[in-house]
Design brief:
By secondary structure, this protein is of the alpha+beta class. The chain has 3 domains: 190 residues, no CATH class; 85 residues, no CATH class; 45 residues, no CATH class. Helices cover 39% and strands 29% of the residues. It is elongated. It is found in: Cytoplasm, Nucleoid. Keywords: Cytoplasm. InterPro entries: Nucleoid_associated_NdpA. This is Nucleoid-associated protein.
Length: 332
């Protein structure tokens, strides 16, 4: 994603007993291929990490000055350097409270097509080895782009459009960093949005109901399942939300609105856009088996609902038979 502007600051903190100190920036970082590569790697790493989703409190209702500062920046009355320095001053306290060492605080304004976003990340350094032109091994400090203690991404375009969306802001919430994420939310005036795991589970339940309602053949069901998982996984890897109307067209190109209307009519309570949860998607797989003339295949999410497995008696209990199978059994 092309970078419109980027500011890099340093948060000095030698150890747990030392107070953090911000070395603020005086100007944006010069554009370069190296900077493009670093921001791309940070973005890719961020998309693969556990996040929570939220939205900014209205500036008039927020105790934090950040929503008003962001609005001023988006309107052009506040520069990125000023915004970065104000953010850096506030985040210095978080580093003091939660982290043993400091690092570099990166704020990048990115533009991809019509989408403008803001990425904030605190990165740390590690020692790496290099071999120089004299063939001698030396130790060189390197940015550990996969390790971010705190990070935040805001879809500025979606935020400026307004409306009920809760998918325009996400922040890092890796295991062990929940308290840091809580304090960061409070500091920046962020309130909770949707729960990706819950929304993804509900979407998959809606899809299963749709397949059952349409009484699809096995092959058609498998193809539509693959289409859903491929699309959702691709969106997750790019840090983008699932759009229900877009997904509906992929699930059934002959009736592109069918799945979307099923969701709306059944009132699953899903938002028009859903941040996908990778782990939940990976669990949406199929159990298959064949032995002695019997072939069985079903989606894993049906286990415990319409299908039960009795391990002690080595039995599989199917509560809802497919209509065509039922007709064949009844006409026997």
């Amino acid at each position: 994603m092309p970078i419109s502007a980027c500011v890099i600051q340093r948060l000095d903190k030698a150890d747990s007993d030392s107070p953090a100190r911000l070395v603020s920036a005086s100007e944006p970082h010069p554009q370069s291929d190296a900077l493009d590569g670093l921001i791309t790697r940070l973005s890719d790493a961020y998309h693969g990490k556990s996040k929570r989703w939220g939205r900014l409190v209205e500036p008039s209702d927020s105790e934090s000055p950040f929503p008003a500062e962001l609005a001023a920046y988006a309107e052009g009355s506040l520069g990125l350097v000023a915004l970065a320095n104000q953010l850096g001053e506030r985040l210095t306290g978080l580093v003091d409270d939660h982290l043993p060492t400091g690092g570099h605080l990166i704020l990048a304004d990115q533009q991809q097509g019509e989408t403008r976003s803001l990425l904030l990340a605190l990165v740390h350094h590690r020692d790496g080895f290099v071999i120089g032109n004299d063939q001698q091994v030396a130790i060189s400090g390197q940015i550990n782009h996969t390790q971010m203690s705190l990070a935040l991404r805001i879809n500025l375009s979606q935020w400026q459009q307004g409306g009920p969306s809760s998918q325009y802001l996400s922040l890092l919430a890796d295991r062990g960093g929940q308290k840091l994420a809580d304090d960061m939310q409070a500091l920046l005036g962020i309130t909770d949005g949707v729960d990706p795991k819950s929304e993804t589970r509900t979407l998959l339940k809606a899809f299963s109901d749709f397949v059952e309602k349409e009484d699809m053949e096995e092959q058609a069901s498998r193809e539509k399942t693959d289409a859903l998982i491929d699309y959702a996984s691709d969106q997750a890897s790019r840090g983008e939300s699932i759009t229900l109307e877009e997904l509906s067209a992929l699930v059934d190109d002959k009736q592109p609105k069918a799945f979307y209307e099923h969701i709306r009519n059944a009132d699953y309570g899903l938002s028009p856009e859903i941040p996908p949860d990778k782990r939940t998607l990976s669990q949406f797989r199929r159990f298959t088996g064949r032995a002695e003339g019997v072939s069985i295949s079903f989606d894993s999410h049906l286990l415990g609902n319409s299908i039960e497995y009795d391990e002690e008696r080595d039995r599989l209990i199917i509560k809802k038979l497919p209509n065509k199978l039922k007709e064949q059994l009844q006409s026997k």
